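Reposting from the mailing list since nobody answered there.

I have sequence plus structure tokens for a pair of proteins and want to know whether others read the tokens the same way I do. The first protein:
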Amino acid sequence: MVQPSEVEFLNVLKKDENDRVMVYKVKIGHRLCIMKVFRGQGDCPSFSPDVEPRLFLRESRAYRLLKEKGFCERGVVPDFYGTIENIDVALWPDLSHLKDDVFPPDAVLLEYIPNLERIGPENFLDDNIKRLSQTLQEFHEMGLLHGDTFPRNMMVVRQQPRDRVLWIDFDCAQIVQRGKCEEWTEKSFSFEGEMMAEFAEFLAEDAKTGEINKTWLYYYD
């Protein structure tokens, strides 16, 4: 169990509009980490057994599955270090802005990856996009729907002899049993695959000019 005194907040990397999700760079002991904090949502009703409405549970369950299946070890997603649940913000000064919330926040702890770049024309390699596509297909085969398959969640770390490519951000993810889920869920898997294939094709075209053109809607929609 991580104690508040062990965590040094270094800076805020990202917040959404309503502070529902806050991403911090932190130091725990000698390790740099990502601490992704989710505002508490309580028990939210779901309109379908295929849908988990709580962002923290989407993300944490996805990473637990990915860790269990070896995706973290392969480096195709950030490593998952665990969760901090039902955070008492009175003990966490950097989260004091959440003190009036009805429900306590939760957090996931992830690998901090330096030199992370969003995939784009400037770092495009055919090998990179093929590996991202293959990883997405593997997600689908085990019943993990990413839910946000845009380039903002496809990352590249340029290195030798081979770039590292990975998927991030699983707070839109859903885990289902393929073949037993609802028809619209199965269609969502097909849609993600088709969307990825189109993006890969368009990005290869844009890489020839070095400018975002055919992929515009994927970056700016």
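The second protein, same order (residues first, tokens after):
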Amino acid sequence: MVALLWANKIIALDKTFNDVPAGLKKQVAKELKLAGCEDLITEEQYK
């Protein structure tokens, strides 16, 4: 749930992937991929 909120903030350009807490990055990356917004993932290890 929190990962989805972060993903929505990133998609809305209110936040960036770098702002996401380390413990949530994997889940947020998954949500961004599901939304077709993989280009917003700025860290290679999560792409």
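Reply #1 (J.P.):
I read it the same way you do. The two ends are 20 Å apart (CA to CA).
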